[in-house]
Design a protein that fits this description.
The chain has nine helices and twelve strands. It is an alpha/beta fold. The longest helix is centred in the first third of the chain and has 45 residues. The chain starts with a strand and ends with a strand.
Length: about 350
């Protein structure tokens, strides 16, 4: 205890009892190694109790949500009768599907043409007569690529083989539509307009590796026409044309080789689903293939922002024209130099030489 001496005005404090007094822990079983084990067990127990409580609460909420949705769905479909679906299926006839398919594919209906508009009106009337409440045709303003035969000056695209005097030796059948314009003249959508002339070079599928192989063989495509087959470049023929452009080619011819589009060993394709020799595959070669080039990713309707069409961001830089593999065979047969590398031969009965037209053609 403290002691105060009034004569000397000194205070004496005895710390003996304070220093020697030992504090006892509040909970002995929470200290030491044993306490550490107990604390760990308590943490694990509390964690699992929280998981169980959370699961039970979430399960109750989820079941309530499902029950409310099922009730809503039952109210909406309460008047459904299974016999209605059976009656609808009985009204579908194979012959009707066949006749409708013939009618739909009878003519080429290019977007923006009168033929397409009239057929759209016919379909709208069909749907209205089928009992639908309201069928309307929404107006879209889409950038469309058309061939010369479908423009105001109907001149079909032409591919010719000329001799050194400029006389036509051979002309590809690029004006091969039947009477009544049942099929549109073949062209590559969003190809550059223009004329290109030059020697012919075969570039296989037109991949980067194919042009590098031509370079390794000292075969240049600069200022020449490159003929390539469709395929191997997944869904983007623009990349083939882009490679030809980078190697300074003046134009591109594309064709579907029977090795890629017909079954193995197929010779007679009549009345089969294989590609006949006079058929010409149309295709998109523009830079943009995600909807309308002027309104990417959004509908091409009024009020949407449009890219300036004069920027020419979507068309190729050189002319591109598709041809049939019958015509490709006649052109490739005229090449006299450059043995094809491994894997460059297709299904045509020709050597698949790489360059140099014979007789200075």
């Amino acid at each position: 205890m403290p002691h105060w001496d009034s004569d000397t005005e000194k205070i004496t404090v005895d710390y003996h009892n304070i220093i020697n007094k030992k504090k006892r822990p509040v909970c002995v079983w929470l200290t030491g190694k044993k306490g550490l084990v107990v604390q760990s067990l308590l943490a694990v127990i509390l964690f699992f109790m929280g998981m169980i409580v959370g699961y039970l609460v979430r399960k109750n909420v989820h079941e309530t949500y499902i029950r409310s949705n099922v009730t809503c769905a039952e109210q909406v479909t309460s008047d459904y009768n299974i016999t209605v679906g059976q009656q609808l299926r009985r009204t579908i006839e194979l012959e009707n599907i066949r006749e409708d398919l013939k009618l739909i594919t009878l003519e080429a209906r290019v977007p923006g043409t009168l033929t397409g508009q009239l057929f759209g009106e016919k379909i709208r009337k069909w749907l209205n007569n089928s009992g639908l409440d309201n069928v309307y045709m929404a107006p879209y303003n889409v950038l469309v690529s058309r061939s010369g035969s479908e423009s105001s000056s109907p001149v079909p695209n032409s591919v010719q083989l000329l001799n050194n005097n400029g006389t036509s030796v051979f002309k590809c059948n690029t004006d091969n539509h039947p009477p009544r314009q049942l099929v549109m003249n073949p062209y590559s959508f969003f190809s550059k307009n223009g004329t290109a002339s030059g020697d012919l070079v075969y570039a296989n599928y037109g991949r980067s590796r194919d042009f590098k192989q031509l370079d390794a063989l000292n075969i240049s495509v600069a200022n020449k026409i490159v003929i390539m087959r469709y395929g191997k470049v997944k869904g983007v023929d623009y990349l083939k044309v882009l490679m030809a452009t980078r190697y300074k080619a003046k134009g591109v011819l594309l064709y579907a080789d029977p090795a890629d589009y017909n079954g193995p060993g197929v010779k007679n394709v009549a009345k089969t689903w294989w590609l006949p020799g006079n058929a010409i595959q149309r295709g998109f070669v523009g830079r943009w293939n995600r909807g309308d080039p002027l309104t990417p990713f959004v509908p091409a309707i009024d009020g949407m922002y449009r890219i300036n069409s004069s920027d020419d961001l979507y068309a190729t830089k050189i002319p591109v024209q598709p041809i049939s593999y019958d015509d490709a065979q006649l052109l490739l047969r005229e090449l006299t130099e450059g043995a094809p590398p491994e894997g460059w031969k297709g299904g045509l009965s020709i050597p698949y030489n790489l360059s140099t037209l014979q007789n200075n053609q």
